[in-house]
């Protein structure tokens, strides 16, 4: 559980850096997301999940 909380905390830090450092750019980028088709977002999310799974596998090996 400690490891999970550490990983979750690190993810939150990494996710928060762009919002803290570049708030105007993040607003513009989030506004553009509405223009991207849902199928493209799903494919992108799937690729990110596979990449994350691969990184966890490599990190545990």
Question: Care to describe what's here?
Answer:
- There is one protein chain.
- Helix content is 87%, strand content 0%.
- It has 61 residues and is mostly helical.
- Helix 1 packs across helix 2.
- The model has no long low-confidence stretch (mean pLDDT 94).
Order of helices and strands: HHH
Describe the sheet with the most strands.
none
Strand content: under 5%
The gyration radius over C-alpha positions equals 15 Å
Q: Count of DSSP helices?
A: 3
**What is the averaged pLDDT score?**
94
Secondary structure: helix percent: over 70%
Distance between the termini: 20 Å
Notable traits:
3 helices; 61 residues; 87% helix
Strand and helix map with partners:
Blueprint: H1 2-21, H2 23-32, H3 38-60
What's the short version?
The protein is mainly α and 61 residues long. The protein has helices at residues 2-21, 23-32, 38-60.
């Amino acid at each position: 559980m400690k490891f999970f909380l550490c990983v979750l905390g690190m993810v939150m830090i990494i996710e928060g850096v762009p919002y803290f450092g570049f708030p105007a750019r993040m607003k513009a980028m989030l506004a553009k997301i509405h223009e991207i088709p849902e199928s493209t977002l799903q494919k992108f999310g799937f690729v990110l999940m596979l990449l994350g799974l691969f990184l966890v596998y490599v990190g545990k090996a």
